[in-house]
Design brief:
2 copies of one chain form a homodimer.
Chain A lengths: L23 H10 L3 H13 L3 H11 L3 E2 H8 L3 H13 L3 E6 L2 E6 L2 H20 L1
Helix pairs in contact in A: 4-5
The structure holds a DNA duplex.
Chain lengths: 132, 132
DNA sequence: TGAACATATGAACATATATTCATATAATAC
DNA sequence: GTATTATATGAATATATGTTCATATGTTCA
């Protein structure tokens, strides 16, 4: 808990911070156990897709079953173009898949984790709201 | 699966979409079961905090134990100011808490869901990487 | 073939976000 | 008190993101 001897040549990489690293052991452990930068980057991209109410609503709706773009547009109350753009993002990330049936394109979830991520996020909100 | 009779006055709200609602039943069910707009908004805000590699790294590091700002700066390899700004966001959302000990401020996770959300997200990345 | 419909997509624009710089606050040592 | 260290924060800037508009693609029907 107390201060480390300071002269230590740790610096752990570059002189990126204007303060001295206070806890060499903790820092090294955190770096050692941290997920790879690439994993963090990709996880960030994933969470970004969940970081919009419209997309969340799309995903929640699809969790109940397949819907076409027009249905989704009605559910969201937003324009077809906006929905298509959002769906394109979700499709690129393989969170949803689509199939065409005549003029209509049906979308469905394409990833088992989607429901779980939704659940955890909404659970958090519910509990926070309850306890605050 | 086929088209509905079209004259139906559903419109489910406003003429927000240029196409006709194709599946009235599905749309109504989706709307009925959807989380409240407010919940979706807040969940979006939550996921936004996980939507940045730097913040993910902060959260992952704190999952291993308490760290001070300077430690985090070293772990991330980014400047103290940037880290403080990120911590302010996480603090506002009550995902982390802090305590002061002299000049040093220690941060720690303040929410049981953080680890779970991190886990689910990273799990998704790992499995996707494995199967793609 | 052409008209109507469902969806997709590029460009433009407005807003949000992350970082940096400069500076403020808080605590300790002298 | 002043100097030093650790952290916080406002302003500015560059980048990212979401929506809209216009238009393109693909399908069905007459």
């Amino acid at each position: 808990m107390a201060d480390e001897p300071q002269g230590a040549k740790l610096d752990t990489e570059a002189p990126r911070c204007d303060c001295r690293v206070v806890h060499k052991d903790r820092v090294e452990r955190a770096i050692a156990r941290a997920p790879l930068p690439e994993e963090l980057r990709e996880a960030g991209e994933l969470f970004k897709l969940f970081a919009d109410p419209g997309r969340l609503r799309i995903l929640a709706a699809l969790a109940e079953g397949e819907l076409c773009v027009c249905d989704l547009s009605a559910v969201l109350g937003s324009g077809q173009s906006a929905v298509s753009h959002q769906l394109a993002l979700l499709r690129t990330a393989r969170l949803v898949k689509n199939r065409r049936e005549g003029k209509t394109v049906y979308y469905a979830l394409d990833d088992e984790h989607v429901k779980e991520i939704l659940r955890v996020g909404l659970e958090h909100i519910a509990e926070r709201t309850a306890s605050s």
